[in-house]
Amino acid sequence: MKIFLALWYAMKALARLAMIGMAMAVLGSGSAHAAGTPAAGKVQVEVVGKGRPLLMIPGLNSSAEVWRETCLALKDVQCHLVQLPGFAGAAAADPRPAEFLPAMRGQLLAYLHDQHLGPVVVVGHSLGGLLGLQMAQTDPTAVSALVVVDALPFLPAARDPKATADSVRPMADQLRKGMLAADAAQWQAQLKAGLPGMTRDPQRQAELGRWGEASDRQTTADAMHAVMTTDLRDSIASITAPTLVLGSWAGYQPMGGTEDSTRAVFQAQYAKLQGVQIAMSAQGFHFLMWDDPRWLQEQVQRFLAAHP
């Protein structure tokens, strides 16, 4: 049984599994400074620029670097670039939390509270988008607006709309078990398997591979299990923050997917989130900030202007 990296990085990956079978990331800059002294195994945040605060959360196995170019292209913003523990060389939590997503959500909300930043705009990619949705539900006063990049409230339902957290748990359990049981050679091969579907850029693919290799395997497995068994389709009805969802459909074209069919999946999953705006990229794969940067930047800048 193979573990494709697409399953790890892409919140949409289970939609692909129906056709491809069960499958098996903080550098500084001159204008940046760290917000406090990072504690080992905790969420780390780097602050870049001055202006309206944006909390920018990367996805599974990703580095905070994934958001730097977007941050520098936006106007009048102060970016709080998040590095999640255990990913892309960051120290893993010790002990590791029993529930990855609630633990990360708690640390992120605590950061906003400690830095007196709320309410802020939360921008999240993939797993980071799922965390943004959970933050907006848990503490509406902390989130003024939300940008979700290529993430769904319940990943398994992209393939089977009737799926539930309970029905997919056995598969999630098996996936985690397989990820942890793989030997070094298998792990290296699995890390490379899904890279072409994540971004069009071969250099970026290599970067994702390095981030994956530097990530803590237990953290990756626990986080993926959490993503697969977290269903927010109903609970997002409580979100009051204006929300922009940016999705990719280009990656579905080889399987016959179209913009309309992919948009329909997003609309169905976000149906209970009142006032949600959904836009689809025709150019980018999962890492839209790399593959379709101008489109994403324009979408975010327009959304910020509309919700000052």
Tell me about the biggest sheet?
A: 8 strands, mixed
Secondary-structure-based class equals alpha/beta
Major sheet: order of its strands?
1-2-4-3-5-6-7-8
Low-confidence stretches: 1-38
The CA-CA distance between the termini, in Å, is: 49 Å
What is the helix fraction of residues, given as a range? 40-55%
- Give the integer mean of the pLDDT values: 87
Task: Count every helix, treating DSSP H or I runs of 4 or more residues as helices.
Answer: 12
H-E order: HHEEEHEHEHEHHHHEHEHH
Radius of gyration: 18 Å
Beta-strand percent range: 5-15%
Shape: globular
List keywords for this structure.
308 residues, alpha/beta, 12 helices, 41% helix, disordered N terminus, 8-stranded mixed beta sheet, 8 strands, globular
What does this structure look like?
The protein is of the alpha/beta class and 308 residues long. The protein is 41% helix and 15% strand. The chain contains 12 helices and 8 strands. The protein has an 8-stranded mixed β-sheet with strand order 1-2-4-3-5-6-7-8, with helices on both faces. Strand 5, helix 5 and strand 6 form a beta-alpha-beta unit. Helix 4 crosses helix 5 and helix 6 runs antiparallel to helix 9. It is globular. The N terminus is likely disordered.
